[in-house]
Design goal:
alpha/beta; binds pantoate; 9 strands; 294 residues; Rossmann fold; globular; three-stranded antiparallel sheet; Pantoate--beta-alanine Ligase, Chain: A,domain 2; 2 domains
């Protein structure tokens, strides 16, 4: 595996790869969820490129940019173990040179969910992903569905800016007890880690309520999800929304979910960590730990 830090070197190494290339952009501190994205990339393509770059432009004031967990040595080992060929960890001042003044804005899809509480976040994400796409020029790029809104925005950007890249979304990877994997889980102490299960409990409760009676209103489903989350003493809901799975616009609270289905998504702060999770109510519960939640 080549470990590369400059854009020129990356372009040269990329040009030497014969066959198709999968790309997994990350901010490092890799966990089993990232490794699943990488394996999916290697199922779809001949080669795998992984980037590790903690992108400053997607963090707002007061967010965790300076404390974002890092483990470059561990990341290198993990990437090597799955068969990654190019590990790209560029320097911040190489990626954002002086007077960097171009930003990618994907309108509409950032108006709900994380958009209002993290102004500028998705501009930062779209900008860095567009830059990395231009640098790496992959055939396929793989993203996790935990960041559902991010995935929707990247799909839209890829289409609108005519990147010739297939965007592959991978279902959420969960710990054995149902908590969605995230680099930010490491901020939680033991008690907070237990409380963090309230996100999956809330979403699963809403899923069960919907499956049991699809004529329930969106408001009733949101109330069902809210109860287990509010029962966790340290949990503060940033948002809990039921949105259209494609447009991400909030559904009418007084009506049942329409045939288009519904994505229920939440962001909850527990101690120092802001955790997100989501579930599609109109699809069967995914195999795995959510099915055995009490
Ligand atoms: O999902 C992430 O880790 C980041 O938002 C991404 C896509 C690597 C952009 O910095």
């Amino acid at each position: 595996m080549k470990r590369i830090t400059t854009i020129d070197e990356l372009r040269r190494a990329r040009a030497e790869l014969n066959g198709t290339v999968a790309f997994v952009p990350t901010m490092g501190f890799l966990h089993a969820g990232h490794l699943t994205l990488m394996r999916r990339g290697l199922e779809l393509c001949d080669h795998l490129v992984v980037s590790v770059f903690v992108n400053p432009t997607q963090f707002g004031p007061g967010e965790d940019l300076d404390n974002y967990p890092r483990d470059l040595k561990g990341d290198v080992e993990k990437c090597r173990s799955v068969g990654c060929e190019i590990f790209f960890c560029p320097r911040r001042d190489h990626v954002y040179t002086d007077h960097h003044s171009t930003t990618v804005i994907v309108d509409e899809l950032d108006r709900s969910l994380c958009g209002p509480s993290r102004p500028g976040h998705f501009e930062g994400v779209a900008t860095i992903v567009a830059k990395l796409f231009n640098i790496v020029t992959p055939d396929v790029a793989v993203f996790g569905q935990k960041d559902y809104q991010q995935l929707a925005i990247i799909r839209r950007m890829t289409r609108d800016l005519n990147f010739d890249i297939r965007i592959e979304g991978v279902p959420i990877i969960r710990e054995d007890d149902g908590l969605a994997m995230s680099s930010r889980n490491r901020y939680l102490d033991d008690d907070q880690r237990r409380q963090a299960l309230c996100l999956s409990r809330g979403l699963v409760a809403a899923h069960r309520a919907y499956t049991d009676d699809p004529s329930r209103t969106v408001r009733a489903l949101l109330e069902t999800a809210r109860r287990p989350i509010e029962a966790a003493p340290g949990a503060h809901i940033d948002y809990l929304e039921c949105v259209h799975p494609q447009t991400l616009m909030p559904l009418d609270a007084d009506r049942p979910v329409s045939d288009d289905g519904a994505l229920m998504a939440t962001a909850v702060s527990i101690g120092p960590a802001r955790l997100i999770d989501n579930l599609r109510l109109h699809e069967p519960l995914p195999d795995g730990p959510l099915r055995s939640l009490p």
